[in-house]
Amino acid sequence: MSRPSRPTPRPVPARAAHRWAGAAAALAVVAAVVLGPVSGAPAGAQSSTLVNGAGSTYVALAMQQWVTDGTAKGLRVNYTPTGSPDGLQRYSGSQINFAGTEAEFSSFGQTSVPRGYQYVPDVAGAIAMMYNLRDQSGKKVDYLHLSQRTTARIFMGDITSWSDPTISAENAGFKFPDKPINVVYRSGQSGTTALFYDFVKHAAPDVFSRWASRHQVSPDIRILEPPVGFAPKTQGLGGSDQIAQFISGDSGAWSIGYDEFGYAKTYDVPSAWIQNASGKWVLPYAENISAALESASLRPDLSQELSGVYASGNAKAYPISAYSYIVTQCGTGDRPSCKGPYADQGITDTLAPWLRYIACDGQANMARIGYSPLPPNLSQEMANAVARLTGKPAERLSSGNCNNPRFRGSLGPGAASPPDPYEQLPGGVCGAAGCDPENPGGSADPNGPGGQDPNAAGPGQGPGAGPADGAADPDGADDSNGPGEEAADGGPAATELDGGAGRPGTEEAIGGGSGDWRAAEPASYRGRTGPGLPPAAALGLVAALAGPLVVVGGRRRRRARRA
Question: What is the dihedral of CA 244, 156, 167, 181, to 10 degrees?
Answer without folding.
Answer: 50
